[in-house]
Amino acid sequence: MNTTVLSLFISILCITTFLTGCIQEEPEGKKEELTLEEIATSFMTHLQNNNYLHAYILFNEEMQEALNQDQFTSLWESYVTTYGQCESIQDTRQAQVQGYDVVYMNCSFEKEYFIVFRLVFDSEKHIAGFWQDELISPTSYKAPAYVNQTAFTEMEVTIGMAPWTLPATFSIPNQTGSFPCVILIHGSGPNDRDETIGPNKPFKDLAGGLASQGIAVLRYDKRTLVYADELASEHENFTVQEEVIDDVLYSIDFLQLQSYVPIDSIILLGHSLGGMILPQILTETVSVDKAIMMAAPARPLEDLILNQTNYLYQLDGTIDATEQEALDEIEELVQKIKTMTIAENETLLGMHKPYWAYLHTYDQVETAQTLTIPLLILQGKRDYQVTYEEDYLTWSDTLQQETVTLYSYDTLNHLFLSGDGTPTNTEYMTEGHIPEDVITDIITWINE
Q1: Is there a single domain that holds both residue 192 and residue 130?
Q2: 116 in the same domain as 13
Q3: Co-location of 167 and 131 in the same domain
Q4: What are the Cα distances from residue 397, in Å, to 141, 272, 368?
Q5: Distance between CA 440 and CA 325 in Å, rounded?
Q6: Residue 318, domain member (yes or no)
Q7: What is the CATH number of the domain that holds 405?
Q8: Which of 109, 178, 256, 269 is the most buried (most CB within 10 A)?
Q9: With b meaning 16 or more CB within 10 Å and e meaning fewer, what string describes 229-238?
């Protein structure tokens, strides 16, 4: 089935189910416990794992009458043939359209396509419609002008220890003499070594820009990307120590063992969650000479999640009843996290009790105040996730050490990509690069 026929088939099917919204008989209780975005995520996760029956039973009765299970399986397998496996859910967004509850899901596929699906729900939280809303074709990465490909060599290497070894890329300047090396630390989620989001690869920009100017860079695929299935059963012991910190320490060990590479200093660069956890990492090693925090939260993670959700809901100028209900639910979860009234094996905002318990005892601002090595803090003023007003100014007001340098950029968002107007999550799907002045500021600071 070609993509045109496939999209038309889905559209015809979903127009019928959208207008009827009939109810399917299923065991009571389960769906009432989940939000629509969680059900949508579960639906797509089943498809990722080839559990077609589990996905199919989330349809309502009218949807199942219009499309039997074999047809549904063939339909999704056509997607896989055309676009490759669905690799990750980039983000979800809930809205109301003509009185119906709708969840939009932006999904990345193996062949570098991005597809936004629209799932319509009936009053019983069954899926009553399934659209392909937007298809973003793959674009081959084009290095920004400031990257000089002849100035450095990239090696594929491995960091870490069994059973958590990770594939990595080591960008080494083609020059004589020693040079500093930067380790890149990802933000939240199962990121690859380029921190790919949509068509953008901010870590690849950083690596190429720095390596072009005589600074080595080590970047690696995140543990939660490489070992997603294995970590699913490790939630009882899973914290940011396992998600972030351990692999940074392994990266430092890797660099210290590379006698053929003349590294004279090690610098850590953490973005978003990586920047938030960076002060803690620095308390666990004496081998780092400088550190850079890009869009680093100064607030608790649970507050960021609530505020980001509230921001996105208000983009249209109003918050409807369904959105307010979702916000109220998140606020309840945030309070459970803050009071640590979390049951064993309970999942709150995507993470289990040990994860939140670790962060509950961690204050990144307080920890940063104890550091003596040079810190560079960078912030985009168009960042709605980690904000200039609530995060950057906290760092600025609190860290009074002479070793701390702060820069902000008027037009940059959370990915340090330029934009204008009201910032939204959809602009991450527009191709861009980290501006050269950010690269220059980092290089100048490192070389001071």
Answers
A1: no
A2: yes
A3: no
A4: 39, 19, 12
A5: 45
A6: no
A7: 3.40.50.1820
A8: 269
A9: eebeeeeeeb
Task: State the residue range of the domain holding 90.
Answer: 3-136
Q: Decide if 99 is inside a domain.
A: yes
Residues 77 and 153 in one domain: no
Per-residue pLDDT of the chain (448 residues; tens, 9 = 90+): 333 333 333 333 333 333 333 333 344 444 457 899 999 999 999 999 999 999 999 999 999 988 889 889 988 988 888 888 999 898 888 888 777 899 999 998 988 788 889 999 999 999 999 988 877 776 678 899 999 999 999 999 999 999 999 999 999 999 989 999 999 999 998 899 999 887 899 999 999 999 999 999 999 999 999 998 888 777 778 999 999 999 999 999 999 998 888 999 999 999 999 999 999 999 999 999 999 999 999 999 999 999 999 999 898 888 888 889 989 999 999 999 999 999 988 889 889 999 999 999 999 999 999 999 999 999 999 999 999 999 999 999 999 899 999 999 999 999 999 999 999 988 888 889 999 999 999 999 999 8
Do 38 and 85 fall into the same domain? yes
Separation CA 373–CA 330 (nearest Å): 38
Alpha-carbon dihedral angle through residues 140, 144, 145, 146, given to the nearest 10 degrees: -140
For residue 389, give Cα distances in angstroms to 44, 169, 187, 393, 394.
36, 35, 20, 6, 8
The total number of residues written for the chain in this structure: 448
Q: Which residue has the tokens 């029956």?
A: 53
183: tokens are 């380790």
Residue 327 maps to a domain: no
How many C-beta atoms surround the C-beta of residue 133 within 10 A? 13
Residues 192 and 102 in one domain: no
- Number of domains composing the chain: 2
> Distance between CA 446 and CA 290 in Å, rounded?
8
Q: Does residue 233 lie within any of the structural domains?
A: yes
Q: What is the DSSP letter of 317?
A: S
Helix ranges (H only) for 129-272 are 202-211, 223-226, 228-231, 240, 246-256
Same structural domain, 232 and 256: yes
> Do 129 and 154 reside in the same domain of the chain?
no
CA atoms within 13 A on the CB side of 52: 13
- CB within 8 Å of 423: residues ≥ 6 apart: 382, 383, 384, 413
Neighbour count for residue 347 (Cβ, 10 Å) = 14
Cα dist from 212 to 27, 65, 203, 275, whole Å? 59, 59, 14, 24
